[in-house]
Each structure stands twice: as structure tokens, then as C-alpha cells.
Design a protein that fits this description.
Largest sheet: 5 strands, parallel
CATH class of the largest domain: Alpha Beta
CATH topology of the largest domain: Oxidized Rhodanese, domain 1
Number of helices: 5
Strand content: 5-15%
Oligomer: single chain
Shape: globular
Strand order of the largest sheet: 1-6-5-2-4
């Protein structure tokens, strides 16, 4: 009798877990979530982007990826930027070290705070943004997100220590 109850309980547990997994795998979405993801493009490539936030993000993502320059997904080196470096709005996303050394004229918005509304308000929509960090890793992540949000972004992959000193300055921390 105990074995039968155990088997029935096991079967019910597996059934409940299976249903939960099925709802997760099948893509249960709350209201408004995934309205873009659940729309697959037609085989001929003609499709309409759905309205709303996901549709807007999809159009920005399409623009960002499809218009990437031939040198990569908006990834640039200092030698590419140097002749016109003052034409960029430079954002340094390092969480620390900005006052030790940074590119002249850059502002510091730490990576973890970049998408906060009060920081996004600081970014221009009519000027290319050069995103920098110490090694290029955080800049790459931050630049991709900003690019997907519709900003004109270039990501500096040159290590900041390799930028010539005449283009750098330091500051006194607050």
C-alpha cells in the first residue's frame, strides 16, 4: 500500500513538473512581453515589425546590426578615432579609475548606471558617442546596448593605457 501511494505521488509530481516545464518551454509570456519575439519573419523576408516597445527595439536592433561599418559592429581603434576624436561625445564607463586618467573631455557614467534615465538624458542624439573603458570589454557591452537603443555609437577597443598621453587628463575625485 505504501509503495502504491509513493508511486502515485511520484507520478503526480512528475506531471506537475512536466506541465510547469511545458509552460516555460512553450514561451508563456505575460501581457506585452515577447510581442516581438513571438513573431517570426516570413521566408521571403517581408514582415511587419509589431507596434510597441519591442517593435521599436527590433527596428533599432535591425538598424544597428545591418548598418555596421565594414570594420565591425561599430568597433573602432584609437588610430581610427584620433584624427577626429573631438567630434565624439566620449563616455567612460569604468566604475573606478576615471580620475586617475581619462580621455580629455570625456564624462564618466559607470557601466552599472548607464541605462538610468538621468544618465541617458546626458547622451546626445545628434552626435556620435564613443564608449570607452580600460580594456574595451565593458565599452563593448555598453555600446551595444546604447546602439540597440538608437544612439550613434562607436566602441573603443584600444586599451586606455595605449591612448597617447597628450589625449588624456586626470582630475581630482569629488
Amino acid at each position: 500500500m505504501k509503495r502504491t501511494r509513493w508511486n502515485i505521488a511520484s507520478i503526480l509530481l512528475v506531471a506537475v513538473l512536466g506541465l510547469s516545464a511545458t509552460s516555460i518551454i512553450s514561451g508563456y509570456q505575460g501581457p506585452g512581453i515577447g510581442e516581438y519575439v513571438n513573431v517570426a519573419p516570413l521566408k521571403d523576408g517581408v514582415w511587419q515589425t509589431p507596434p510597441g516597445h519591442y517593435g521599436l527595439m527590433a527596428s533599432y536592433a535591425n538598424s544597428y546590426f545591418s548598418k555596421a561599418p565594414s570594420n565591425g559592429n561599430y568597433i573602432v581603434t584609437w588610430s581610427f578615432v584620433q584624427p577626429n576624436w573631438q567630434d565624439y561625445f566620449i563616455v567612460d564607463v569604468r566604475p573606478s579609475g576615471f580620475c586617475t586618467s581619462h580621455i580629455i573631455g570625456s564624462i564618466n557614467i559607470p557601466f552599472a548606471e548607464l541605462a538610468e534615465p538621468y544618465n541617458l538624458e546626458k547622451l546626445p542624439t545628434n552626435q556620435p558617442i564613443l564608449v570607452v573603458c580600460g580594456s574595451g570589454i565593458l565599452a563593448s557591452q555598453a555600446g551595444s546596448v546604447l546602439g540597440l537603443m538608437g544612439y550613434q555609437v562607436r566602441i573603443l577597443t584600444t586599451k586606455l593605457v595605449d591612448v597617447p598621453n597628450q589625449y588624456k587628463e586626470s582630475c581630482t575625485p569629488l
